[in-house]
Amino acid sequence: MSDGARRLLPRFLPLTPALALLLLFLAGPIAYCVLIAFTDLQLTGQAEESFVGLENFRRAFGDEDFLNAVWLTVVFTVLSSLVGQNTLGLALASLMRRASKPVRTLTGGIVVTAWVLPEVVAGFLLYAFFRREGTLNAVLDLLHLPSQNWLYTLPILAVSFANVWRGTAFSMLVYSAALDEIPKEITEAAEVDGAGGWRRMWHITLPMIRRSIGTNLMLNTLQTLSVFGLIWVMTRGGPGGKSQTLPLFMYEQAFQNSLIGYGTAVALLLLLVGSLFSLVYLRLLRTEV
Amino acid sequence: MALSSRRTARRLAADAGLLAVAAAFVLPLAWVVLSALDPRAGLRVKAPDGLTLDHFDAILTDEITFTPLLNSLVLCGGATALTVVCAALAAYPLSRFHSRLNRPFLLTILFATSLPITAIMVPVYALFVRVDLIDTMQGTVFFFAASQLPFAIWLMKNFMDGVPKELEEAAWTDGASSLQSLARIVLPLMGPGVAVVTVFSFVMMWGNFFVPFMLLLTPDQMPASVSINDFFGNRGMVAYGQLAAFSIVYSTPVILLYVLIARRLGGGFALGGAVKG
C-alpha cells in the first residue's frame, strides 16, 4: 500500500456505511433489474426462470397496451409537467412579485400545502374533486356548463390536472428564487424604454432565467415519470387502461399478470429514460462540484 | 401620479390573478376540512349540515389510526435516523478532504438523486423475495434509507461546506480524530442544516406510498400511507367523513414539520441542487 493510500484510507472510512447501503439496496436492485429484464421470471408456478434475451423488449414493442402506456406517459408528462406545472409555476412566481403581501402569502400557502400533502391524500382529494358527484361538476352546474364523469370520460386529463395541483408549488419556488436574482435595474431600464410586460418577459426575464427553466423542466419531468400513488388512487389506471402510464403498466404486468420478467423489462426502459433526463439535468447544472 | 395609479392597477390585476388560482387550488382542500366536520359528508364541497367530531371519534381507534401511524413512525423514524447518520458520516470526508474520487462520486450521487425510484420497485420486490426481506420492517427501512441517501448526502455536504475548516484545525493539532471533530465541532455548528435533512427525509418517507405498498404484505405492519386505502373496498361503503378525518390526522405532522423548516428551504430551496443553475 502506498503512503498516500495509507493516509487517505482512514479519512474516507466514514463513507463506508452509506456506501454499503447504496450498493446493497440501490445499486444492487438496479443491477438485478438489468439481469431479470432478460429472463421470463414469473410470480408463481415456475420452477426456474430462464434467460430469454431480448424477448421481453420485443414483446413490449409489439404489445398495444405497452404502446398505449408509452403514449399516455408522454401525454401525462407534457400536459402536467411541461405545460401545467412549469407555466403555472412561472406565472404564479411573476404575479407574486407585483401582488400585495396578504394575497401573496395566502396563495403561496395554499399552493404549497397541496405540495406537502402525502401523495395518497392528494389522490383522494382530487378523486373527490373529479367524481361525477364531486366538486368540479358542482361548480360547472353553477356556471351552467355541461358536467360529465371526468374520471370515466377523460381520466388522463383528470390525473394530469391532479399532478399540476400537486406539483406546481415546486416550480413556483424555483422560479421565485430565480426571479429574485434578476437585478432590478435591468427590468426598470427596459420599462423606462417603454417595453411592455410581455416584451420584458420574452426578451429579458426568460433569457435570464433560462438555466432555471432547464433544470426545473428536467426535475419536473423526472418527478412526473415516477408518479404512481396519485394515479393509482384516482383511477387504478382505468377505465380500460385509459390512464395507465408506464409505472402502472409495469405494476399490472408484474403482479396482476404475474410476469415479473416482463414487468422488469418495462421498468428498465423507464429507468433508462429517467437516466437520460437525469444526465441532461447534470449537463444543465454544470455545477462546480 | 399616472405612474403610481398604473402601479396600483397592476397590483390589483396581479392580486385578482393570484386569487383566481388560489380559489381553484383551495377547493379540494376545503372538501377535506368541511367533510371531516360534516355529519353528512359526501364527495362535494358544501357547507356542513351542522358540525360534528363524530368522524374523528370513529377513526381514533387502534386498528384504523394508531397502529398505522405507529408503523409509519417506526418505518420513517428508523429510516430517517439511518439516513441522517450515514449521510453525516459520508458528507464529512467529501467536504473536508480532497481526493480525485470526490468529484465523480458526487456526480454519481447527484445523478442518483433524480433517478425514478418507482421504476425499480418491481425488481426490488423480486430481490427481497429472494433474500427473504419481503414483508419485514427492517428490509423496508433499509430500502427507504438507501433511496433517500443520495439526496441527503448531497444536501448534508452542501451544508457542511458552509462550516469553516479553520475551526477544526485547532482540534486536529490537539490530536482530535476526524470523527471527534465531526461530532463535537462540525455537527453542532450546522445544527439547522442537520434539522433540514432530518425533517426533509422524514416528510418524504411519511408520504411515500409505493415503497411500503410493494415491500410490506401483512396488514398489521402497514403504515398510514397504505392503510388509508382500506377506506375504499375493505370496509364496504366509503365513509367519506371518516376518510377526510383520517386524511387530516395523517397529514398534520408533515405540514407542521414543513412549516418548521420552510424558511430554511425557502426561496433558495435546493432540491437536488436544483436551483443552483
Automatic annotation (TrEMBL), chain A:
- GO CC field: plasma membrane
Q: How does it sit in the membrane?
A: Multi-pass membrane protein
Q: Which residues form the ABC transmembrane type-1 domain?
A: 71-281
Subcellular location(s): the record lists: Cell membrane
Q: Does the keyword Nucleus apply?
A: no
Q: Which InterPro entries does this UniProt record tie to the protein?
A: MetI-like, MetI-like_sf
- The domain of life is Bacteria
Predominant subcellular localization, coarse grouping: membrane
- Keyword annotations from UniProtKB, A to Z: Cell membrane, Membrane, Transmembrane, Transmembrane helix, Transport
* A Pfam family hit: BPD_transp_1
Q: Which GO terms describe its biological process?
A: transmembrane transport
Q: Which residues cross the membrane?
A: 12-38, 69-93, 105-130, 217-239, 259-282
Show the CDD domains listed in the entry.
Answer: TM_PBP2
Question: What protein family does this chain belong to?
Answer: Belongs to the binding-protein-dependent transport system permease family.
What is the protein name stated in its UniProt record? Answer: Amino acid ABC transporter permease
The species is Streptomyces fungicidicus
For this protein's source organism, the top of the classification is: Bacteria, Bacillati, Actinomycetota, Actinomycetes, Kitasatosporales
UniProtKB/TrEMBL annotation, chain B:
UniProt organism field: Streptomyces fungicidicus
Q: Which PROSITE patterns match?
A: ABC_TM1
Q: Does the keyword Hydrolase apply?
A: no
Q: Which residues form the ABC transmembrane type-1 domain?
A: 69-261
* Sequence similarity: Belongs to the binding-protein-dependent transport system permease family.
Positions of transmembrane segments: 12-34, 69-92, 104-128, 140-156, 194-217, 237-261
- Protein's GO biological process: transmembrane transport
Origin, by domain of life?
Bacteria
Q: What does the UniProt entry say about where the protein is found?
A: Cell membrane
Q: What is this protein called?
A: Sugar ABC transporter permease
Q: In what way does this protein cross or attach to the membrane?
A: Multi-pass membrane protein
Query: What keywords sit in the KW lines?
Result: Cell membrane, Membrane, Transmembrane, Transmembrane helix, Transport
Q: Name one GO cellular component term.
A: plasma membrane
Signal peptide coordinates: none
**SUPFAM superfamilies on file:** MetI-like (SSF161098)
In Pfam terms, one family for this protein is BPD_transp_1
